[in-house]
Amino acid sequence: MADNVGNKIAKNFSEDVPFMESGNFHVKGASNLDWGMKDRLSRIFNPDTGKTIMLAFDHGYFMGPTSGLERLDLLVPRLEKYVDCLMGTRGAIRSSVSPTYNKPIALRASSGSSILQDDLSHESMVVDIEDAVRMNASAIAIQTFIGADGQKETIEQLNKAVNLGTRYSIPTMGVVAVGKEMERTTQFFLLATRMLAEFGVQIVKTYYCDDFEKVAAACPVPLVVAGGKKIPEKDALTLAYKSIQGGAAGVDMGRNIFQSQYPEEMIQAVVKVVHEGYSDIEAYEYFQHLIN
Question: Count of alpha carbons within 13 Å of 88, Cβ hemisphere only?
């Protein structure tokens, strides 16, 4: 039974103190993992910066051909050279992504309902781990709903993925999905990201929130921040900047790249923020320079 009396709200996150168990490895919380796991993480997270830029184009598995993703075969070749990792489904990758790109793949391995049902909270792991091995995936991504009806089953599926991924040295990226009844508060993301890390994932994909520094400090594995819905380019660059400054190890952007009027220029501006230390103001000026 939960200790609702003794479970006091945490306060001391020591945000300014570096993570103590990194050793000489550049990925947070991975110093004690085996060689194969570290090799795959090193493909995702740039060893020089410790950061990553993921391009997410997995929206079609529940949304269909959304705006900007009508032709993956035309989109991905324009953007792949600027990003560190491609995130998609096995069908999209096999049909529309050239293996000659030699980019690490974060393979979407969970699925459930479509937007027609208006309830995406009952996902399960639908990709065999052997298929992830055949695709040379650098990570498998499992969506996990916290505070939703599907919480128990998605947590079980996440743990299944962690067990299988550990067996084959493939990292698991737990994707925080917010239940309909939950608010995107600091306390929620402190709970959700820590839960996924405690289950054994090597990467957590989450959303930016207030006091994000606390969330990043309390999570013993790297956080990658989702871009979310399309917002103006200036705002998206501010999101990326605040995420990195707050302790994120990267961003996973989709719609804020491929739905931009200038996707190639936008992704190059994100690179400046994540890997080159640009502020959001400097990156937006760079973006403006590219498009003019």
Answer: 23
Task: Choose the weakest-confidence range: 121-135, 156-170, 268-282.
Answer: 121-135
Cα gap 119→291, rounded to integer Å? 39
The tens digit of pLDDT for each residue in 111-154 reads 876 665 556 667 788 899 999 999 999 999 999 988 878 789 99
Residue 81 carries which DSSP code?
G
**Could you give all domains of the chain from N- to C-terminal order, each with its CATH number?**
35-230+247-260 (3.20.20.70)
| Active-site residue list | 205
Mean pLDDT of the region 75-96: 95
The pair of three-digit structure tokens given for residue 91, joined into one six-digit string: 């069908």
Provide φ and ψ at 39, rounded to 5°: -60, -45
- Integer-rounded Cα Rg, in Å, for the chain is 18
Q: What are the residues facing 250 on neighbouring strands?
A: 52, 224
- Residue 173's DSSP bridge partners are 141, 203
Provide the CA 36 distance to its chain's centre, in angstroms.
Answer: 20
Long-range residue pairs from 238-241, CB within 8 A, at least 24 positions apart, any chain: 238/280, 239/208, 240/270, 240/273, 240/274, 240/280, 240/283, 241/273, 241/278, 241/279, 241/280, 241/283
With pLDDT > 70 as the criterion, what percentage of the chain qualifies? 92
Q: Which residue pairs from 260-265 have beta carbons closer than 8 angstroms and sit at least 24 positions apart in sequence?
A: 260/230, 260/233, 262/233, 262/287, 262/290, 262/291, 263/68, 263/75, 263/78, 263/79, 264/78, 264/79, 264/82, 265/290, 265/291
